[in-house]
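Lab notebook, bench 4. Still working through the backlog of constructs that have no structural model yet. Next entry is a single chain of 80 residues. Request: give me the structure tokens for it.
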Amino acid sequence: MASGKPICSNIRMAYCPITEFNLGVAKEFNNPRDYANTILSIYNLPKDKYNELCNNAITTSLLYDYEFLTNMYIEYCINE
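Model written out:
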């Protein structure tokens, strides 16, 4: 995420930030060819759609930033 590039993941998760925040594609591929074709389809997206995935990745990575999470934890502890 922090690289600001779309993600193509060969796994499905109960909670999937890739799907939740529109960062790319997360699914179980049937074979390597399907996986490769999905990577190529992301690469060949129109520039505005590709940039949207990139921006979503950067924005979402901030939610997992150490400093951000630490400040949220401190705020939570103060208000407890």
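Notes after review: The radius of gyration is 16 Å. The longest helix spans residues 47-63. Flag for follow-up if needed.
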